[in-house]
Write a structure and sequence with these properties.
About 25% of the residues are buried. By secondary structure, this protein is an alpha+beta fold. It contains two helices and seven strands. Strand 6 and strand 7 form a beta hairpin. Helix content is about 20%, strand content about 45%. The radius of gyration is 15 Å and the shape is globular. Strands 1, 2, 3, 4, 5, 6 and 7 form a seven-stranded mixed β-sheet that branches. The N and C termini lie far apart (about 30 Å).
Length: about 120
């Protein structure tokens, strides 16, 4: 696993905070219909084997820490892309003047599959 982006400090305390957050993270699916205020974000990358093809592909996952210290995680590529876009537009999380409120929702794909979404609250 490689850290692609982290708003946590790069020192030992920051690494311990990330370990704790990743181990205690609640699934984003549990948040559907709820709002959270994002304080910190960590995006990781890992190689996984596609069970259908046997090919190795690189996938990203995200861990979000809210203003109260609760952690939430997902490997949903939709959520990862939406959170990445949030950082791209609002800038480095370390420079945010306050936690950013988002609403976790769901939508259905053209094939009827439900997936998780993130929008500004």
């Amino acid at each position: 696993m490689a850290v692609v982006y982290s708003s946590l400090s790069d020192d030992f305390a920051g690494k311990k905070a990330f370990f704790t957050a990743q181990n205690s993270a609640v699934s984003f699916k549990e948040l559907r219909g709820k709002k959270i205020e994002i304080k910190d974000i960590v995006i990781t990358e890992d190689d996984v084997v596609d069970t259908d093809t046997g090919e190795v592909e690189t996938r990203r996952a995200i861990t979000v820490i809210d203003k109260d210290g609760a952690a939430f995680g997902t490997s949903s590529q939709t959520v990862v892309a939406q959170i990445q876009r949030l950082v791209d537009i609002l800038g480095d999380v370390k420079s945010w003047p306050e936690p950013v409120a988002v609403e976790i929702g769901s939508a259905k794909s053209g094939r009827g599959r439900e997936y998780t979404t993130v929008t500004l609250a």
